[in-house]
Amino acid sequence: MNRIWLFIPLILFVVMAIFLGGGIGRENKDVLPSPLIDKPFPQFILQQVEAEKQLTQSDLQGKPMLVNVWATWCPTCKAEHQFLNTLAAEGIRIIGINYKDDDEEAKIWLRDYGNPYEFNISDPKGKLGLELGVYGAPETFFVDGDGIIRAKHVGDLNRRVWNKYKVNFEKLSTHTEANSDVDNVKQEEAK
Amino acid sequence: MKALSSLVFTLLLSLVAITSHAVIDGHKYPFDNEVDKVRFEVLAEELRCPKCQNQNLADSNAPVASDLRDKVYELMIEGQTDDEIVGYLVARYGDFVRYNPPVQKNTFFLWFGPIVMVFIGLIVIISLTRGGKKSQPLSEEEIVKLAELKAARSEKQDS
Fold this sequence. Notes:
The complex is a heterodimer. Chain A is an alpha/beta fold.
């Protein structure tokens, strides 16, 4: 009977090993889960970097997109920039948030390294970044056609990372599709 | 001697206090009353910097920690309560920013793990001490052997 007790340390050890081992195995311990997943993109009114135009959250609708938080002071952003160019060339819609940066420097960067962005939101004070829970550029949000955040990636995008998200990204609904669905239902109801 | 050691201890403690407020003081957030000042310091210590992860907002020099301190200050000046301010940050950065996490499914082990451990320890200790008392009565053979040993010992002492 008492022999069973001898196994308790072993059982405890195995339980701890599983718990702690799971922590070690996690791909990146610095990545925090975002509470914004499946929530609408936060409201904002900010200037566009490239033009004298005011942008709001309603500009982030239509076709599913990557919303990439970047800055010229961020070395990893430079590392991922070429891959963003590649993605843009493949027809992926990418919106930029120029985070705590200078518009003029951002324009020079885009001229020199290429511009994969449909447009860039200027966020010099990091206000939108704070709304998005950004804690280090680059960060990328996967936003569907209705402006709902579906996933977030912290760190640089590259081919390996993209392959992980690609399938789910391609499944995201476009705003126009969603609308036409509603229209179809209405038409059927009318009949 | 005792006075000296307690003095040293107090000095060491004050050193800790100074370092943990170094960043806050450097930024100088003005409040018109002492209550809010203390509230701000408590909030800055209970909120974790999302970038550095093992420092609170008061300690960290990271840019994002400074942004969050500014935001906490801004929200306090707007008149939000402590709960509202913590809620604001949790809604954007997740429960991770709290050094004082709420009791919920995924923090269950964190909150009750130690109690469970103590409980397991108690059970082990009780069972060990009880096991000692519940010694078996000696068998016939052992009684005979014990008598022999006792006899041998007393002979040795006599000689």
